[in-house]
């Protein structure tokens, strides 16, 4: 797990409100998993754990609170949409050893 300073934007009431609206609109399910379920027989979708900006805030800050620019995703599908973050996560993992969590850094 990456440990980084939390962006203050995600603590704002406006974000919390629009995030809840996106999750409600998507019935709390990952939209990418739901799309995959339609094409793969027997695939079970995951619950959404986050809300993703389709067009990144860095490119279009004017759309950061627009419901049509948001999609509910599970962790796995969110990582697929952010491959640039995946390489960092591969180097840093958490492993449990005898009930203790140990952070392992792989180089």
Distance between the termini: 15 Å
Question: How many helices does DSSP assign?
Answer: 4
Could you estimate the helical fraction of the residues in percent? 25-40%
Which secondary-structure class do the elements indicate? alpha+beta
Anisotropy-based shape: globular
Strand residues, percent = 15-25%
Structure explained in plain terms:
It is globular, with a radius of gyration of 16 Å. It has one domain (8-105). With 107 residues, the chain is α+β, with helices and mostly antiparallel strands. The strands form two sheets. It has a two-stranded antiparallel sheet. The chain contains four helices and four strands, in the order H-H-E-E-H-H-E-E. Helices cover 36% and strands 19% of the residues. A hairpin with a 2-residue loop joins strand 3 and strand 4. The chain starts with 12 loop residues before the first helix and ends with a strand.
């Amino acid at each position: 797990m990456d440990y980084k300073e939390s962006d203050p934007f995600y603590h704002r009431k406006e974000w919390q409100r629009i995030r809840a609206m996106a999750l409600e609109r998507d019935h709390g399910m990952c939209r990418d998993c739901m799309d995959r379920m339609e094409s793969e027989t027997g695939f079970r979708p995951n619950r959404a754990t986050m809300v993703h900006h389709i067009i990144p805030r860095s490119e279009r800050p004017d759309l950061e609170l627009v419901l049509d620019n948001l999609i509910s995703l599970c962790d796995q599908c969110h990582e697929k949409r952010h491959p640039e973050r995946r390489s960092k996560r591969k180097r840093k993992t958490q492993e449990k050893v005898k009930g203790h969590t140990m952070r392992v850094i792989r180089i």
